[in-house]
Design a protein that fits this description.
Maf protein; five-stranded mixed sheet
């Protein structure tokens, strides 16, 4: 269904290798799907440093340092939460770039303000400001998760290409 994900993951790998960057991923709704897409590539340990699957709020706090107050006030699916997640992924790894995702994959769990398919994403290069987006994906749980993985990888690729080579 999403046959472009392996090709996109390879482009991410090539871009990270060209920069000699390591990537960290902080995932909630994708449950490790970003890490799977990346580690399906042989030799990925050269550029994929680590992944954090932080499905529960407690895991987001324990593993990434997301503030409990943030989760109470804004919820797990919010731009401020993924901003803290991506900063935590960088801070708890040796990576130069990170991606974070949190969303409502469905089929349940949506509300009028946060419907099924709503996903917040953040990308950050170390010592730079994060790039944060909220997207609304349609489809069933598998499709929302796959679209999130694809969008997350596209964001990493854009971030890698936007940076100047030293």
């Amino acid at each position: 269904m999403f046959s472009q994900i392996p090709v996109l993951a390879q482009h991410v790998a090539d871009a990270l290798l060209a920069r000699r960057w390591l990537l960290a991923a902080a995932e909630s709704c994708t449950g490790g799907g970003i890490a799977v897409a990346l580690t399906d590539i042989p030799g990925s340990s050269q550029w994929f440093e680590r992944g954090f699957v932080t499905y529960s709020n407690q895991a987001k706090q324990d593993m990434l340092g997301v503030q409990g107050e943030t989760l109470v006030k804004y919820g797990a699916v919010s731009e401020i939460t993924v901003t803290e997640m991506v900063a935590g992924a960088l801070g708890h790894s040796n990576a130069q770039v990170a991606v974070a995702v949190s969303g409502i994959a469905g089929p349940t769990g949506g509300t009028p303000n946060k419907p099924v398919g709503m996903v917040c994403l953040a990308w950050q290069v170390a010592d730079d400001s994060p790039v944060v987006r909220t997207e609304y994906f349609s489809g069933d749980r598998a499709v929302v998760r796959a679209k999130t993985v694809e969008y997350a990888l596209r964001g990493v690729l854009v971030l890698c290409k936007d940076q100047n080579l030293n």
